[in-house]
Design a protein that fits this description.
By secondary structure, the chain is mainly alpha-helical. Helices cover 50% and strands 6% of the residues. A hairpin with a 4-residue loop joins β2 and β3.
Length: 280
């Protein structure tokens, strides 16, 4: 919908607006109104300034970003998610979880988004497992819808290596984005820990973790435990369509993605290859 909105008033194709190629500067305020009504609780697209689209012209999942792409109005009705099956409830929910956690750890200074990310995590903790177990639970669905909305607002400050990798892997067209985020989360936290010890400790404390020491470790264990309790694969090798012999290709695509630019630890293609191998 955001792509259609853009091309309704802007020349060329979607590839011309790739954020890594200066596309943001070519997007103007000359856009028709847009009402966003999410039917999953995860992406936060209703509060986001961009679109991630698989584009033939770039050969990868491509980010198109501009504050002008923010929907004019968002209607977030948890009733629209009541029939979402358990696996998609879990996968989209973990997308929101990753948004909140990764944005909090990103290198951009934005205390308002940090607070929103923590609040989003609290709502997700309240609703995720119950919504997966019983999709008709109105309270759980409401918690997840709110958590996803807050996650969509929080990642205005940037994301990190989790999303660069999941965009690359998702470009194969077979793997669900939120599910990939869920698998990659604990491995990415371990990768980032040397550069983000203080921020991870701070986030763990705000979530009530780490009182017995090793707060960053508790944060990593939390990500692993949540994944273990959901009906999702725990390793990349369990995701249909992904191939271990293409790790170098996935890492190369991830380096072209914009999200890792705000990752707390700078990364090379070799780093990403090793991270993917550990998650396999």
């Amino acid at each position: 919908a955001k792509g259609i909105r853009l091309l309704a008033t802007h020349p060329g194709g979607l590839a011309d607006y790739d954020v890594t190629q200066g596309g943001m500067d070519r997007i103007t305020s000359n856009l028709p109104p847009m009402i966003a009504i999410p039917t999953t609780a995860g992406t936060g697209a209703e509060a986001g300034r961009g679109a991630l689209i698989q584009i033939a012209g770039t050969g990868r999942k491509t980010a198109i970003l501009s504050p002008f792409l923010l929907p004019s109005t968002a209607i977030c009705d948890p009733d629209l998610t009541r029939t979402l099956p358990p696996d998609l409830t879990a996968g989209t929910g973990m997308d929101a979880f990753a948004h909140c956690m990764e944005s909090y750890l990103s290198t951009t200074l934005h205390p308002i988004c940090d607070g929103i990310a923590v609040e989003g995590l609290r709502h997700i903790f309240k609703g995720l497992e119950t919504a997966v177990r019983d999709g008709s639970d109105q309270e759980a669905r409401s918690e997840m819808m709110l958590g996803a909305l807050l996650g969509g607002i929080s990642f205005h400050k940037g994301l990190g290596v989790i999303h660069s990798l999941s965009h690359a892997l998702g470009g194969e067209g077979r793997a669900h984005h939120g599910t990939l985020n869920a698998i990659l989360l604990p491995h990415s936290l371990r990768f980032n820990r040397p550069a983000a010890e203080a921020r991870m400790t701070e986030l763990a404390g705000r979530l009530g973790l780490g009182r017995g020491g090793d707060a960053p470790g508790h944060l990593i264990i939390l990500a692993e435990l949540i994944l273990a309790r959901l009906p999702l694969p725990r390793r990349l090798g369990q995701v249909e369509g992904l191939r271990h012999d293409r790790i170098a290709h996935y890492a190369q695509l991830a380096m072209l993605d914009h999200c890792h630019r705000t990752n707390p630890r700078p990364c090379t293609q070799k780093d990403l290859e090793e991270l993917l191998d550990r998650a396999w």
